[in-house]
């Protein structure tokens, strides 16, 4: 059974087998979580992302999919990059957001990761309402068969932490 935990803090400061990056489809860094992961993780992550773009993902990583790279200088073995949907951009947004969590857990299982730290995917510049994002994230993780022992939701601020705490309590 997977244990779900909450931490208020910086995802890039977490010690886990895998950290999930709320990436943009280019895989080449950006703002928010994505920029922080690339900055703190160093050039090794970007080098692997460039190699992925040159091979399997020439058009970028599709929304709802996930792929792993090294974690570089982060205190983890891997970074699992997933591209969340922009809120309101399409009718299948909720399904795509759920897919980010399922696909990330699938990749974690392929890697043998036992601890995975997630941010609140799509809640930054992609505009997803925090309460809805927390519901989708927690329901999806609870209902996805996985060998991961601990899923840690790492929430940057109190508002996000409280939204996820309400979902875990309910």
UniProtKB/TrEMBL annotation:
Database matches in Gene3D superfamilies: Leucine Aminopeptidase, subunit E, domain 1
Entries under CDD domains matching the protein: Macro_OAADPr_deacetylase
Domain (Macro) ranges: 1-170
A Pfam family reported for this protein in Swiss-Prot or TrEMBL: Macro
InterPro entries in the record: Macro_dom (IPR002589), Macro_dom-like (IPR043472)
Cross-referenced PANTHER family: GANGLIOSIDE INDUCED DIFFERENTIATION ASSOCIATED PROTEIN 2-RELATED, MACRO DOMAIN-CONTAINING PROTEIN
NCBIfam families: PRK00431.1-6
Protein's name in the database: O-acetyl-ADP-ribose deacetylase
Originating organism: Streptomyces dangxiongensis
């Amino acid at each position: 059974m997977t244990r779900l935990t909450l931490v208020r803090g910086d995802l890039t400061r977490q010690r886990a087998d895998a950290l999930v990056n709320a990436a943009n489809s280019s895989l080449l860094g950006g703002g928010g979580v994505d920029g922080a992961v690339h900055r703190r993780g160093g050039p090794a992550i970007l080098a692997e992302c460039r190699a992925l773009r040159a091979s399997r993902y020439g058009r970028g990583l599709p929304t709802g999919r996930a792929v792993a790279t090294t974690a570089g200088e982060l205190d983890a073995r891997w970074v699992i990059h997933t591209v969340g949907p922009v809120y309101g951009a399409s009718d299948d947004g909720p399904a795509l957001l759920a897919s980010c969590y399922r696909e990330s857990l699938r990749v974690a299982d392929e890697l043998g990761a036992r601890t995975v730290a997630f941010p609140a995917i799509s809640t930054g510049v992609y505009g997803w309402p925090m309460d809805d994002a927390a519901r989708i994230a927690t329901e999806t993780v609870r209902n996805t068969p996985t060998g991961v022992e601990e899923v840690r939701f790492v929430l940057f601020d109190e508002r996000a932490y409280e939204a996820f705490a309400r979902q875990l309590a309910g």
